[in-house]
Write a sequence for this structure.
Protein backbone atom coordinates (compact mmCIF):
# COMPACT_ATOMS: atom_id res chain seq x y z
CA UNK A 1 0.00 0.00 0.00
CA UNK A 2 1.41 3.35 -1.02
CA UNK A 3 2.09 5.72 1.86
CA UNK A 4 0.79 9.25 1.99
CA UNK A 5 2.76 11.69 -0.08
CA UNK A 6 4.58 14.59 1.54
CA UNK A 7 2.00 16.98 0.10
CA UNK A 8 -0.90 15.06 1.69
CA UNK A 9 0.95 14.79 5.00
CA UNK A 10 1.69 18.50 5.11
CA UNK A 11 -1.88 19.33 4.05
CA UNK A 12 -3.33 17.15 6.82
CA UNK A 13 -0.94 18.64 9.36
CA UNK A 14 -1.68 22.21 8.37
CA UNK A 15 -5.43 21.58 8.36
CA UNK A 16 -5.17 20.12 11.85
CA UNK A 17 -3.14 23.11 12.95
CA UNK A 18 -5.69 25.45 11.38
CA UNK A 19 -8.53 23.72 13.25
CA UNK A 20 -6.62 23.85 16.51
CA UNK A 21 -5.71 27.48 15.92
CA UNK A 22 -9.35 28.32 15.18
CA UNK A 23 -10.60 26.52 18.28
CA UNK A 24 -7.86 28.01 20.45
CA UNK A 25 -8.59 31.50 19.16
CA UNK A 26 -12.32 31.06 19.71
CA UNK A 27 -11.75 29.79 23.25
CA UNK A 28 -9.34 32.63 23.99
CA UNK A 29 -11.73 35.25 22.66
CA UNK A 30 -14.61 33.76 24.64
CA UNK A 31 -12.54 33.69 27.84
CA UNK A 32 -11.53 37.27 27.23
CA UNK A 33 -15.17 38.22 26.62
CA UNK A 34 -16.17 36.42 29.84
CA UNK A 35 -13.44 38.18 31.74
CA UNK A 36 -14.43 41.52 30.26
CA UNK A 37 -18.06 40.90 31.24
CA UNK A 38 -17.01 40.07 34.81
CA UNK A 39 -14.87 43.19 34.98
CA UNK A 40 -17.78 45.24 33.72
CA UNK A 41 -20.13 43.66 36.26
CA UNK A 42 -17.64 44.31 39.04
CA UNK A 43 -17.26 47.95 38.01
CA UNK A 44 -21.01 48.45 37.77
CA UNK A 45 -21.73 46.82 41.15
CA UNK A 46 -18.92 48.79 42.76
CA UNK A 47 -20.25 52.09 41.46
CA UNK A 48 -23.76 51.12 42.55
CA UNK A 49 -22.94 50.17 46.16
CA UNK A 50 -20.75 53.21 46.69
CA UNK A 51 -23.55 55.43 45.46
CA UNK A 52 -26.10 53.69 47.70
CA UNK A 53 -23.78 53.75 50.73
CA UNK A 54 -23.29 57.51 50.31
CA UNK A 55 -27.02 58.18 49.89
CA UNK A 56 -28.33 60.28 52.86
CA UNK A 57 -31.54 58.26 52.91
CA UNK A 58 -29.64 55.04 53.41
CA UNK A 59 -27.45 56.59 56.09
CA UNK A 60 -30.52 57.88 57.93
CA UNK A 61 -32.30 54.52 57.71
CA UNK A 62 -29.21 52.72 58.98
CA UNK A 63 -29.41 54.65 62.27
CA UNK A 64 -33.24 54.75 62.34
CA UNK A 65 -35.63 52.63 64.31
CA UNK A 66 -37.10 50.72 61.30
CA UNK A 67 -34.46 50.34 58.58
CA UNK A 68 -36.41 47.48 56.96
CA UNK A 69 -39.49 49.58 56.37
CA UNK A 70 -37.54 52.70 55.46
CA UNK A 71 -35.46 50.96 52.77
CA UNK A 72 -37.98 48.54 51.18
CA UNK A 73 -39.18 50.86 48.49
CA UNK A 74 -35.75 52.31 47.77
CA UNK A 75 -34.09 49.04 46.87
CA UNK A 76 -36.98 47.99 44.65
CA UNK A 77 -36.64 51.19 42.64
CA UNK A 78 -32.88 50.81 42.39
CA UNK A 79 -33.23 47.23 41.14
CA UNK A 80 -35.65 48.38 38.47
CA UNK A 81 -33.37 51.24 37.34
CA UNK A 82 -29.99 49.41 37.50
CA UNK A 83 -28.69 46.25 35.92
CA UNK A 84 -28.06 44.54 39.26
CA UNK A 85 -29.70 41.25 40.14
CA UNK A 86 -29.79 42.02 43.82
CA UNK A 87 -29.21 44.90 46.23
CA UNK A 88 -28.92 44.01 49.87
CA UNK A 89 -28.63 46.53 52.72
CA UNK A 90 -27.77 44.95 56.05
CA UNK A 91 -26.74 45.57 59.58
CA UNK A 92 -23.04 45.34 60.47
CA UNK A 93 -23.69 41.84 61.79
CA UNK A 94 -25.00 40.73 58.41
CA UNK A 95 -28.74 40.77 59.15
CA UNK A 96 -30.46 41.64 55.88
CA UNK A 97 -32.69 44.73 55.85
CA UNK A 98 -33.52 44.31 52.14
CA UNK A 99 -33.41 41.47 49.60
CA UNK A 100 -35.04 40.77 46.20
CA UNK A 101 -36.71 37.78 47.84
CA UNK A 102 -38.86 39.08 50.75
CA UNK A 103 -38.48 35.73 52.51
CA UNK A 104 -34.75 36.32 52.82
CA UNK A 105 -35.21 39.63 54.69
CA UNK A 106 -34.00 39.17 58.26
CA UNK A 107 -31.68 36.39 57.28
CA UNK A 108 -27.89 36.52 57.39
CA UNK A 109 -25.94 37.82 54.38
CA UNK A 110 -23.86 35.16 52.68
CA UNK A 111 -20.55 36.63 51.66
CA UNK A 112 -17.41 38.29 52.94
CA UNK A 113 -18.07 41.29 55.26
CA UNK A 114 -14.74 41.80 57.00
CA UNK A 115 -13.20 44.23 54.45
CA UNK A 116 -16.37 46.35 54.45
CA UNK A 117 -16.48 46.39 58.24
CA UNK A 118 -12.90 47.68 58.10
CA UNK A 119 -14.12 50.56 55.94
CA UNK A 120 -13.09 49.26 52.51
CA UNK A 121 -15.06 48.49 49.35
CA UNK A 122 -14.59 44.82 48.46
CA UNK A 123 -15.55 42.76 45.35
CA UNK A 124 -15.74 39.00 44.95
CA UNK A 125 -17.48 36.14 43.16
CA UNK A 126 -19.57 34.27 45.68
CA UNK A 127 -22.43 31.79 45.69
CA UNK A 128 -25.38 33.19 47.59
CA UNK A 129 -29.10 32.57 47.69
CA UNK A 130 -29.44 33.53 44.02
CA UNK A 131 -26.53 31.35 42.95
CA UNK A 132 -22.99 32.39 41.92
CA UNK A 133 -22.70 36.14 41.46
CA UNK A 134 -20.17 38.89 41.01
CA UNK A 135 -20.81 41.16 44.00
CA UNK A 136 -19.38 44.20 45.79
CA UNK A 137 -19.93 45.23 49.40
CA UNK A 138 -19.37 48.72 50.86
CA UNK A 139 -19.74 50.26 54.37
CA UNK A 140 -22.43 52.77 55.35
CA UNK A 141 -21.01 55.39 57.71
CA UNK A 142 -22.84 57.70 60.08
CA UNK A 143 -21.91 61.28 60.70
CA UNK A 144 -19.03 60.29 62.99
CA UNK A 145 -17.54 57.83 60.50
CA UNK A 146 -18.67 54.68 62.28
CA UNK A 147 -19.86 51.76 60.16
CA UNK A 148 -23.60 51.54 60.83
CA UNK A 149 -24.52 49.25 57.98
CA UNK A 150 -23.38 47.49 54.83
CA UNK A 151 -24.56 47.62 51.18
CA UNK A 152 -24.04 44.72 48.78
CA UNK A 153 -25.03 44.57 45.10
CA UNK A 154 -24.26 42.00 42.47
CA UNK A 155 -24.96 40.42 39.10
CA UNK A 156 -25.36 36.68 38.82
CA UNK A 157 -22.73 34.71 36.88
CA UNK A 158 -25.50 33.47 34.61
CA UNK A 159 -26.25 37.02 33.48
CA UNK A 160 -22.54 37.74 33.16
CA UNK A 161 -22.25 34.67 30.89
CA UNK A 162 -25.19 35.92 28.87
CA UNK A 163 -23.36 39.19 28.34
CA UNK A 164 -20.29 37.26 27.15
CA UNK A 165 -22.46 35.05 24.93
CA UNK A 166 -23.66 38.11 23.06
CA UNK A 167 -20.10 38.32 21.63
CA UNK A 168 -20.08 34.64 20.71
CA UNK A 169 -21.07 35.17 17.01
CA UNK A 170 -18.10 37.51 16.60
CA UNK A 171 -15.83 35.04 18.36
CA UNK A 172 -17.00 32.17 16.19
CA UNK A 173 -16.71 34.32 13.07
CA UNK A 174 -13.11 35.18 13.83
CA UNK A 175 -12.34 31.53 14.56
CA UNK A 176 -13.97 30.46 11.31
CA UNK A 177 -11.97 33.11 9.45
CA UNK A 178 -8.71 31.83 10.90
CA UNK A 179 -9.73 28.29 9.99
CA UNK A 180 -10.56 29.23 6.40
CA UNK A 181 -7.35 31.21 5.92
CA UNK A 182 -5.29 28.38 7.40
CA UNK A 183 -7.08 25.80 5.26
CA UNK A 184 -6.52 27.89 2.14
CA UNK A 185 -2.81 28.26 2.90
CA UNK A 186 -2.59 24.54 3.63
CA UNK A 187 -4.22 23.64 0.31
CA UNK A 188 -1.96 26.03 -1.62
CA UNK A 189 1.15 24.68 0.10
CA UNK A 190 -0.04 21.11 -0.45
CA UNK A 191 -0.43 21.72 -4.19
CA UNK A 192 3.02 23.29 -4.34
CA UNK A 193 4.59 20.36 -2.52
CA UNK A 194 2.73 17.89 -4.71
CA UNK A 195 4.12 19.62 -7.78
CA UNK A 196 7.74 19.74 -6.64
CA UNK A 197 7.76 16.26 -5.05
CA UNK A 198 5.79 14.64 -7.89
CA UNK A 199 3.33 13.27 -5.35
CA UNK A 200 5.94 11.00 -3.76
CA UNK A 201 6.04 10.04 -0.12
CA UNK A 202 9.06 10.40 2.19
CA UNK A 203 10.12 6.77 1.78
CA UNK A 204 9.80 6.94 -1.99
CA UNK A 205 11.74 10.22 -2.12
CA UNK A 206 14.49 8.68 0.00
CA UNK A 207 14.65 5.68 -2.33
CA UNK A 208 14.79 7.92 -5.40
CA UNK A 209 17.48 10.06 -3.77
CA UNK A 210 19.58 7.05 -2.83
CA UNK A 211 19.20 5.58 -6.32
CA UNK A 212 20.13 8.81 -8.10
CA UNK A 213 22.96 9.52 -5.68
CA UNK A 214 24.42 6.07 -6.24
CA UNK A 215 24.06 6.40 -10.02
CA UNK A 216 25.48 9.92 -10.00
CA UNK A 217 28.58 9.16 -7.98
CA UNK A 218 29.29 5.86 -9.73
CA UNK A 219 28.82 7.16 -13.26
CA UNK A 220 31.64 6.81 -15.78
CA UNK A 221 31.16 10.43 -16.84
CA UNK A 222 32.02 13.43 -14.72
CA UNK A 223 29.16 15.78 -13.86
CA UNK A 224 29.44 19.35 -12.57
CA UNK A 225 26.36 21.48 -11.82
CA UNK A 226 26.84 25.26 -11.79
CA UNK A 227 24.07 27.67 -10.74
CA UNK A 228 23.20 30.97 -12.40
CA UNK A 229 25.53 32.87 -10.02
CA UNK A 230 28.56 30.82 -11.04
CA UNK A 231 28.73 28.69 -7.89
CA UNK A 232 29.38 24.97 -8.21
CA UNK A 233 26.53 23.08 -6.55
CA UNK A 234 27.50 19.48 -7.31
CA UNK A 235 30.58 17.54 -8.39
CA UNK A 236 30.31 13.78 -8.69
CA UNK A 237 33.18 11.45 -7.89
CA UNK A 238 34.19 10.90 -11.50
CA UNK A 239 34.36 14.65 -12.23
CA UNK A 240 36.55 15.17 -9.18
CA UNK A 241 38.89 12.42 -10.38
CA UNK A 242 39.09 13.61 -14.00
CA UNK A 243 39.53 17.27 -13.10
CA UNK A 244 42.07 16.57 -10.38
CA UNK A 245 39.98 18.13 -7.60
CA UNK A 246 40.40 17.56 -3.88
CA UNK A 247 38.88 14.34 -2.55
CA UNK A 248 36.57 16.21 -0.15
CA UNK A 249 35.43 18.83 -2.64
CA UNK A 250 31.83 17.60 -2.45
CA UNK A 251 31.67 18.43 1.25
CA UNK A 252 32.65 22.07 0.72
CA UNK A 253 30.01 22.94 -1.88
CA UNK A 254 28.64 25.30 -2.99
CA UNK A 255 31.61 27.47 -3.82
CA UNK A 256 32.80 29.61 -6.78
CA UNK A 257 34.29 27.84 -9.79
CA UNK A 258 37.62 29.63 -9.39
CA UNK A 259 38.23 28.10 -5.95
CA UNK A 260 37.95 24.45 -7.06
CA UNK A 261 41.30 24.22 -8.84
CA UNK A 262 40.02 22.94 -12.20
CA UNK A 263 42.37 22.77 -15.19
CA UNK A 264 42.64 26.27 -16.63
CA UNK A 265 41.07 25.51 -20.01
CA UNK A 266 38.11 23.69 -18.44
CA UNK A 267 37.62 26.49 -15.90
CA UNK A 268 37.47 29.00 -18.76
CA UNK A 269 34.70 26.97 -20.40
CA UNK A 270 32.69 26.89 -17.16
CA UNK A 271 33.11 30.57 -16.34
CA UNK A 272 32.28 31.64 -19.90
CA UNK A 273 28.93 29.85 -19.73
CA UNK A 274 29.06 29.06 -23.45
CA UNK A 275 27.48 25.95 -24.90
CA UNK A 276 30.14 23.36 -25.75
CA UNK A 277 29.75 20.05 -27.55
CA UNK A 278 32.51 17.42 -27.22
CA UNK A 279 35.39 19.89 -26.91
CA UNK A 280 38.77 18.29 -26.20
CA UNK A 281 41.05 19.59 -23.46
CA UNK A 282 44.50 18.24 -22.70
CA UNK A 283 45.65 18.23 -19.08
CA UNK A 284 49.10 17.12 -17.88
CA UNK A 285 47.93 13.51 -17.49
CA UNK A 286 44.65 13.23 -19.38
CA UNK A 287 42.78 14.16 -22.53
CA UNK A 288 39.23 15.21 -21.61
CA UNK A 289 36.13 15.57 -23.75
CA UNK A 290 34.03 18.40 -22.30
CA UNK A 291 30.41 19.28 -23.06
CA UNK A 292 28.43 22.07 -21.45
CA UNK A 293 24.68 22.63 -21.70
CA UNK A 294 22.35 25.24 -20.18
CA UNK A 295 19.97 24.06 -17.46
CA UNK A 296 16.93 25.59 -15.77
CA UNK A 297 19.01 26.63 -12.76
CA UNK A 298 22.36 27.27 -14.44
CA UNK A 299 24.42 24.91 -16.57
CA UNK A 300 25.65 21.33 -16.62
CA UNK A 301 29.22 20.31 -17.45
CA UNK A 302 29.87 16.74 -18.64
CA UNK A 303 33.43 15.44 -18.61
CA UNK A 304 34.63 12.23 -20.27
CA UNK A 305 38.08 10.68 -20.30
CA UNK A 306 39.39 10.08 -23.80
CA UNK A 307 42.98 9.45 -22.75
CA UNK A 308 42.81 5.76 -23.58
CA UNK A 309 40.90 6.47 -26.76
CA UNK A 310 43.53 8.98 -27.83
CA UNK A 311 46.26 6.49 -27.04
CA UNK A 312 44.54 3.77 -29.04
CA UNK A 313 43.89 6.22 -31.86
CA UNK A 314 47.54 7.17 -31.86
CA UNK A 315 48.56 3.52 -31.89
CA UNK A 316 46.19 2.82 -34.77
CA UNK A 317 47.53 5.74 -36.78
CA UNK A 318 51.06 4.63 -35.97
CA UNK A 319 50.33 1.08 -37.03
CA UNK A 320 48.74 2.33 -40.24
CA UNK A 321 51.72 4.56 -40.90
CA UNK A 322 54.16 1.72 -40.23
CA UNK A 323 52.18 -0.65 -42.45
CA UNK A 324 52.09 1.94 -45.21
CA UNK A 325 55.81 2.56 -44.82
CA UNK A 326 56.62 -1.14 -44.94
CA UNK A 327 54.42 -1.67 -48.01
CA UNK A 328 56.07 1.27 -49.72
CA UNK A 329 59.50 0.04 -48.80
CA UNK A 330 58.65 -3.49 -49.96
CA UNK A 331 57.26 -2.16 -53.22
CA UNK A 332 60.30 0.07 -53.72
CA UNK A 333 62.65 -2.78 -52.90
CA UNK A 334 60.81 -5.14 -55.26
CA UNK A 335 61.07 -2.64 -58.12
CA UNK A 336 64.76 -2.11 -57.54
CA UNK A 337 65.41 -5.83 -57.18
CA UNK A 338 63.46 -6.49 -60.39
CA UNK A 339 65.61 -3.88 -62.15
CA UNK A 340 68.82 -5.50 -60.94
CA UNK A 341 67.62 -8.98 -61.98
CA UNK A 342 66.59 -7.72 -65.40
CA UNK A 343 70.01 -6.12 -65.98
CA UNK A 344 71.74 -9.35 -64.97
CA UNK A 345 69.57 -11.39 -67.30
CA UNK A 346 70.52 -9.03 -70.10
CA UNK A 347 74.18 -9.61 -69.32
CA UNK A 348 74.72 -6.10 -68.14
CA UNK A 349 76.31 -7.01 -64.83
CA UNK A 350 78.33 -3.80 -64.49
CA UNK A 351 75.25 -1.65 -64.87
CA UNK A 352 73.36 -3.85 -62.41
CA UNK A 353 76.22 -3.49 -59.93
CA UNK A 354 76.33 0.31 -60.34
CA UNK A 355 72.53 0.58 -59.98
CA UNK A 356 72.50 -1.54 -56.80
CA UNK A 357 75.41 0.43 -55.31
CA UNK A 358 73.78 3.79 -56.09
CA UNK A 359 70.44 2.65 -54.65
CA UNK A 360 72.15 1.43 -51.49
CA UNK A 361 74.00 4.71 -51.06
CA UNK A 362 70.80 6.71 -51.55
CA UNK A 363 68.91 4.55 -49.04
CA UNK A 364 71.70 4.97 -46.51
CA UNK A 365 71.69 8.71 -47.00
CA UNK A 366 67.94 8.81 -46.52
CA UNK A 367 67.39 6.60 -43.50
CA UNK A 368 70.56 4.80 -42.59
CA UNK A 369 71.54 7.53 -40.13
CA UNK A 370 68.17 7.40 -38.44
CA UNK A 371 68.37 3.61 -38.07
CA UNK A 372 71.81 3.83 -36.49
CA UNK A 373 70.99 6.79 -34.25
CA UNK A 374 67.58 5.86 -32.94
CA UNK A 375 67.98 2.09 -33.06
CA UNK A 376 64.45 1.92 -34.46
CA UNK A 377 63.83 0.21 -37.84
CA UNK A 378 60.21 1.40 -37.95
CA UNK A 379 61.38 5.00 -38.07
CA UNK A 380 63.66 4.15 -40.96
CA UNK A 381 60.84 2.43 -42.84
CA UNK A 382 58.55 5.36 -42.08
CA UNK A 383 61.02 7.92 -43.41
CA UNK A 384 61.65 5.88 -46.54
CA UNK A 385 57.92 5.70 -47.17
CA UNK A 386 57.30 9.37 -46.42
CA UNK A 387 60.23 10.37 -48.64
CA UNK A 388 58.86 8.36 -51.53
CA UNK A 389 55.38 9.81 -51.08
CA UNK A 390 56.79 13.33 -50.80
CA UNK A 391 58.94 12.88 -53.91
CA UNK A 392 55.82 11.94 -55.88
CA UNK A 393 54.24 15.22 -54.70
CA UNK A 394 57.29 17.29 -55.63
CA UNK A 395 58.62 17.67 -52.07
CA UNK A 396 62.16 16.74 -51.05
CA UNK A 397 62.61 15.18 -47.60
CA UNK A 398 66.03 15.60 -46.01
CA UNK A 399 66.93 13.53 -42.93
CA UNK A 400 69.69 14.82 -40.68
CA UNK A 401 71.09 12.84 -37.74
CA UNK A 402 73.23 14.62 -35.15
CA UNK A 403 75.06 12.53 -32.59
CA UNK A 404 74.56 8.97 -31.43
CA UNK A 405 71.19 8.51 -29.76
CA UNK A 406 70.86 4.74 -29.76
CA UNK A 407 69.74 3.07 -26.57
CA UNK A 408 67.04 5.55 -25.55
CA UNK A 409 64.40 2.79 -25.60
CA UNK A 410 61.55 5.02 -26.74
CA UNK A 411 58.30 3.22 -27.73
CA UNK A 412 58.33 2.62 -31.48
CA UNK A 413 54.60 3.33 -31.86
CA UNK A 414 54.99 6.67 -30.10
CA UNK A 415 58.01 7.61 -32.22
CA UNK A 416 56.09 6.77 -35.40
CA UNK A 417 53.12 8.84 -34.16
CA UNK A 418 55.24 11.90 -33.50
CA UNK A 419 57.53 11.72 -36.54
CA UNK A 420 54.86 10.53 -38.96
CA UNK A 421 52.31 13.25 -38.09
CA UNK A 422 54.88 16.03 -38.09
CA UNK A 423 56.27 14.90 -41.47
CA UNK A 424 52.76 14.56 -42.94
CA UNK A 425 51.88 18.12 -41.88
CA UNK A 426 55.20 19.44 -43.13
CA UNK A 427 54.81 17.79 -46.55
CA UNK A 428 51.27 19.16 -46.84
CA UNK A 429 52.55 22.65 -46.01
CA UNK A 430 55.61 22.52 -48.28
CA UNK A 431 53.79 21.12 -51.32
CA UNK A 432 53.60 23.75 -54.03
CA UNK A 433 56.08 26.10 -52.36
CA UNK A 434 59.34 27.27 -53.92
CA UNK A 435 62.08 24.66 -53.38
CA UNK A 436 59.55 22.50 -51.55
CA UNK A 437 61.61 20.87 -48.83
CA UNK A 438 61.01 19.18 -45.49
CA UNK A 439 63.92 18.78 -43.12
CA UNK A 440 63.80 16.10 -40.42
CA UNK A 441 66.49 16.34 -37.77
CA UNK A 442 67.08 13.69 -35.11
CA UNK A 443 69.68 14.63 -32.50
CA UNK A 444 70.89 13.54 -29.10
CA UNK A 445 70.64 16.19 -26.38
CA UNK A 446 71.48 15.95 -22.68
CA UNK A 447 67.82 15.44 -21.79
CA UNK A 448 67.16 12.72 -24.40
CA UNK A 449 66.05 12.88 -28.05
CA UNK A 450 65.31 16.02 -30.05
CA UNK A 451 63.13 15.83 -33.16
CA UNK A 452 62.99 18.90 -35.36
CA UNK A 453 60.73 19.07 -38.44
CA UNK A 454 60.84 22.19 -40.64
CA UNK A 455 59.16 22.96 -43.94
CA UNK A 456 59.24 25.67 -46.58
CA UNK A 457 55.49 26.27 -46.41
CA UNK A 458 53.59 29.46 -45.48
CA UNK A 459 54.29 29.09 -41.73
CA UNK A 460 52.08 28.60 -38.72
CA UNK A 461 49.58 31.26 -39.72
CA UNK A 462 49.04 29.75 -43.13
CA UNK A 463 47.45 31.73 -45.93
CA UNK A 464 44.65 33.00 -43.66
CA UNK A 465 46.83 34.75 -41.08
CA UNK A 466 48.76 34.01 -37.95
CA UNK A 467 47.29 31.51 -35.48
CA UNK A 468 48.30 30.82 -31.90
CA UNK A 469 50.71 27.85 -31.64
CA UNK A 470 48.58 26.58 -28.75
CA UNK A 471 45.54 26.42 -31.02
CA UNK A 472 47.51 24.30 -33.51
CA UNK A 473 47.60 21.41 -31.04
CA UNK A 474 43.89 21.46 -30.19
CA UNK A 475 41.86 18.50 -31.35
CA UNK A 476 39.84 19.23 -34.46
CA UNK A 477 41.92 22.33 -35.34
CA UNK A 478 43.57 22.26 -38.76
CA UNK A 479 44.95 24.70 -41.27
CA UNK A 480 44.35 22.35 -44.18
CA UNK A 481 41.60 22.61 -46.71
CA UNK A 482 38.42 20.71 -46.08
CA UNK A 483 39.05 17.06 -46.50
CA UNK A 484 38.25 13.67 -45.10
CA UNK A 485 36.74 13.30 -41.67
CA UNK A 486 39.38 13.13 -38.99
CA UNK A 487 41.37 16.18 -40.03
CA UNK A 488 42.85 18.10 -37.11
CA UNK A 489 43.89 14.99 -35.15
CA UNK A 490 47.58 14.82 -36.11
CA UNK A 491 49.03 17.65 -34.03
CA UNK A 492 46.71 16.85 -31.13
CA UNK A 493 48.02 13.28 -31.17
CA UNK A 494 51.56 14.63 -31.23
CA UNK A 495 50.95 16.83 -28.24
CA UNK A 496 49.16 14.10 -26.33
CA UNK A 497 51.89 11.54 -27.03
CA UNK A 498 54.70 13.95 -26.13
CA UNK A 499 53.01 14.95 -22.86
CA UNK A 500 52.39 11.32 -21.97
CA UNK A 501 56.08 10.56 -22.52
CA UNK A 502 57.03 13.54 -20.34
CA UNK A 503 58.44 15.61 -23.20
CA UNK A 504 57.80 19.05 -24.66
CA UNK A 505 56.66 20.35 -28.02
CA UNK A 506 56.83 23.84 -29.46
CA UNK A 507 56.24 25.52 -32.80
CA UNK A 508 57.50 28.72 -34.39
CA UNK A 509 58.00 30.38 -37.79
CA UNK A 510 61.40 30.45 -39.56
CA UNK A 511 60.82 30.81 -43.31
CA UNK A 512 58.15 28.19 -42.78
CA UNK A 513 56.78 26.23 -39.85
CA UNK A 514 59.20 24.60 -37.43
CA UNK A 515 58.12 22.00 -34.84
CA UNK A 516 60.54 20.90 -32.14
CA UNK A 517 59.89 17.91 -29.88
CA UNK A 518 62.13 16.89 -26.99
CA UNK A 519 61.64 13.45 -25.44
CA UNK A 520 63.30 12.05 -22.33
CA UNK A 521 64.92 8.61 -22.43
CA UNK A 522 62.73 5.55 -21.95
CA UNK A 523 62.51 3.74 -18.62
CA UNK A 524 65.05 1.11 -19.69
CA UNK A 525 67.60 3.62 -21.00
CA UNK A 526 70.98 3.39 -19.31
CA UNK A 527 70.30 0.10 -17.50
Amino acid sequence: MRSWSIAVRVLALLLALAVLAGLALSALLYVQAQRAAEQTATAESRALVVAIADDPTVRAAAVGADPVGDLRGLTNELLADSGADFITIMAPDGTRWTHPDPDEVGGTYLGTRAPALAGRVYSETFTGTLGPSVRTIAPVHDGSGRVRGLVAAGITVENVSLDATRDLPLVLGLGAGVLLVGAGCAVALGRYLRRITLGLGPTELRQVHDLYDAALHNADEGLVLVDARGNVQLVNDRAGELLGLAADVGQALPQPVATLGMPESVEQVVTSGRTVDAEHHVTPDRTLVVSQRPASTGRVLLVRDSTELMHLSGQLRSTQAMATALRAQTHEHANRLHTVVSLLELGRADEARRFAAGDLARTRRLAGGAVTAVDEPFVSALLVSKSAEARDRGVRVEVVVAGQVAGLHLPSADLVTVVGNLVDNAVDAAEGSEEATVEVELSRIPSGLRIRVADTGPGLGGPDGVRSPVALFALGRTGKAAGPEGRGLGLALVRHTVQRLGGTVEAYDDDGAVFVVELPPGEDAGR
